[in-house]
Design goal:
The N and C termini lie far apart (about 55 Å). α7 packs antiparallel against α8. The protein has about 230 residues and is mainly α. The protein is built from twelve helices and no strands.
């Protein structure tokens, strides 16, 4: 009876929302930026599912409404982008240049590191789209022959690392310009980085949201070309 109740849609949705709100509360009270809500909420959810013997696929199905709402949430970034449109228009060329350079450097750095550590071509192809948001990254990975599961994990880890350490690294590099900060967070850490950028400021969040889309398009176009040129 207890397990059946735990497997119900309302309870599992409440678990997701409750775990996240608890994680946000812990970070707010502790004031430790390293405690990203995802790092706290994920272990809570995974442990609960394991203790109650609830299949992961069932959990995903019960939270389909939350997954569906991610789409409108991403679209809602357009409001911030619209509010900052005049400022962004003035810096459109630098933003496009930053995304282009970031895409090329991101791809080539993966290739160089994979060769350095002796990883095979499949691993290289799977890690190359790491800086692109998950839906685009998985499609790109599938198209070039990568493993989509490895790609999804690398994207999540990249986003977490950027969301946690990105602002600190940029601060150490003395980068204070909101345009540069937003471009770096969006280009390198996609959605999680953008969420962090929005906490810093509206302009940073707007630029970061724009760079998510630009980075996805740029990487999808350049990745096959770069792989062909370097012989992967």
């Amino acid at each position: 009876m207890m397990r059946e109740m735990m497997m119900s849609v309302p309870v599992l949705m409440a678990l997701t929302v409750g775990a996240y709100l608890l994680a946000v509360w812990i970070r707010t009270r502790s004031k430790i930026m390293l405690l990203n809500p995802l790092l706290i909420s994920l272990p809570i959810i995974i442990t609960t599912l394991w203790l109650c013997k609830i299949p992961a696929q069932h959990y995903i199905q019960c939270n389909s409404m939350i997954s569906f709402m991610l789409g409108p949430c991403v679209v809602a970034l357009g409001l911030t982008l619209y509010e900052q449109r005049m400022t962004i228009r003035q810096y459109l060329v630098p933003i496009l240049s930053a995304v282009l350079v970031g895409s090329v450097v991101g791809i080539l750095s993966v290739v160089a590191l994979c060769k350095w550590f002796g990883l095979g071509s499949m691993m290289t192809l799977s890690l190359e789209p790491k800086s692109v948001t998950v839906p685009i990254a998985m499609e790109v990975s599938k198209g070039i022959g990568g493993n989509t599961a490895i790609t999804a994990i690398s994207v999540a880890l990249c986003g977490l690392f950027g969301g946690i350490f990105g602002p600190l690294i940029l601060k150490l590099l003395r980068i204070k310009n909101p345009i540069a900060l937003g471009a770096a967070m969006g280009s390198g850490s996609h959605g999680i980085g953008t969420a962090r950028a929005l906490e810093i400021g509206a302009l940073e969040g707007a630029v970061s949201g724009l760079c998510i889309a630009l980075m996805g398009i740029t990487t999808a176009v350049l990745l096959p070309i770069i792989n062909m040129l370097i012989g992967i």
